[in-house]
Amino acid sequence: MAISLARGFLERQVPIAPDTLTRVLFAVRKRKTVANWIQKWLPQLDRRVWILASGRGLSQVGIGFVLFYAPIFFVNQVGLSATQVGLGVGCEALAGMFGRFLGGSMTDSPQWGRRKTLLLSALISALADAVFLVSYTFPIFVLGNLLMGFGVGLYWPSTEAVVADITPSADRNEAFALVRLADSLGLGLGVMLGGALITTTQQYRPLFAIDGLTFLLFFALIYYAIAETRPTQSHDRNFWQGWTVALKDPLLLTYVTVNILFTGYISQVQSTLPLYLNRFVPSGSTLGLSEATLSLLFTSHVILTALCQLPVVKALKPLSQPRALMVSACLWGTGFSLVWATGVGIFGQASLGAVLALSTLAIAITAYTPVASSFVVMLAPETLRGVYLSVNSMCWAIGYFVGPPLGGWALDQSRFISDGFWLVAAMSIILVLGILSYLDWQLRVKHH
Fold it and tell me: What's the pLDDT tens digit per position in 84-114?
């Protein structure tokens, strides 16, 4: 626009003050500089990756609306007990395991493929929100959780397989980083908007309607904008045959151990660490950081994780996936050591130690999540990406099943064990580094 304005002035031979022309040219140069910077910062990926990322971000906005507020609603307003809500969430996890198992085979099946599995996932998740919307009793609440867990279980293998299918191997780390960034931004926006809606209206049930609507919008986006991406096969496998191949893959089974540890680390940050900082770290004459301080710390942690996602992956791009994961493991060890140092009072200000620890752990997460998915895709035969990514997704379920109870147990023990838990977590990276070194060596031998 600025260029057109300047050209128009020149064609009409309208006298322009020197300072006006200087400002116009400066604006043009500045706009070009910003555009070049954005183009350089953002990865150059297939248009469909951006479409899928926008859809994932949209669905995560809906999930953010209900993620933290659903338990409060069903206990405080519906009248279910905390135990009943916990059982319902447990049912969701079990249904999610089954959904992941079935979803991996469906994703690789010629009868279903990536697209149909994604569409079914969106419909089942929207149906789950409809059940929650009319839920007043425990059995209906459990039904909603079973449907939601199954829908989400179908979602992960299929959506990750689409990213892998449409992205060259050299760009997969960045592609997975982009969709993870969309997930984080959508979830954070949903949590904020959900809180604002509750504060304004004091109504919880509309949250489920909004969540269901986002799943239907995601369905429409996939239906109209994403064609089937499943590679063609020379012969069709038995529906369950892919699992036989995956569970006999020594590299995949070796990596599963590492992946469960990584997901267990993330679960500690989300479940155990907030409680530890609230109850154990020295803060002046008392123990524990306030809820307001913790809210600020963890909000900043989420924001930093989102901001670092693409730059960190771009920096790790020259490394092989196992070596990039070694960098993540070292950051996890450093972060957990900083948590221990904060708890035993090495830092004069506990909040300073918490900031350093959470910042380090944020970068550790960004170095892990996209690289892990890319690594599993690299291990997988092209026709079995769905099953292999289903195994990757199940590692998350196992890590979150084991991690929080283990961390909770440690915090219920003596102060020595509660503090030492973080040192043990930090030292566990020795096992992770050893396994990743073995995997890196095996891959180099295989390629040569």
Answer: 887 887 788 788 889 988 998 899 888 899 8
pLDDT in tens, 154-186: 998 898 899 988 888 888 888 888 888 888 888
Structurally, how many domains does the chain consist of? 2
Task: Tell me if 38 sits within 8 A of 56, measured CB to CB.
Answer: no
Identify whether the C-beta of residue 279 lies closer than 8 Å to the C-beta of residue 411: yes
Token pair 């039904």: residue: 143
Residue 358 has pLDDT above 70, yes or no: yes
Among 391, 389, 384, which residue's Cα sits nearest to residue 157?
Answer: 389
Dihedral angle computed from the Cα positions of residues 17, 20, 24 and 25, in that order, rounded to the nearest 10 degrees? 60
One domain, residues 160 and 124: yes
| Residue 207 structure tokens | 């949250």
- Reported residue count of the chain is 448
Measured CA to CA in angstroms, residue 141 lies from 132, 137, 204, 365, 414 at distances of 6, 6, 15, 33, 37
Q: Could you tell me if residue 422 is inside a domain?
A: yes
Which residue range forms the structural domain that includes residue 102?
47-227
Q: Give pLDDT tens digits for 283-299.
A: 777 788 887 788 788 87
User: Which of 366, 375, 369 lies closest to 311, judged by CA?
Assistant: 366
Q: Do 77 and 159 fall into the same domain?
A: yes
Helix boundaries (H) for 112-249: 113-133, 138-165, 172-201, 205-225, 241-246
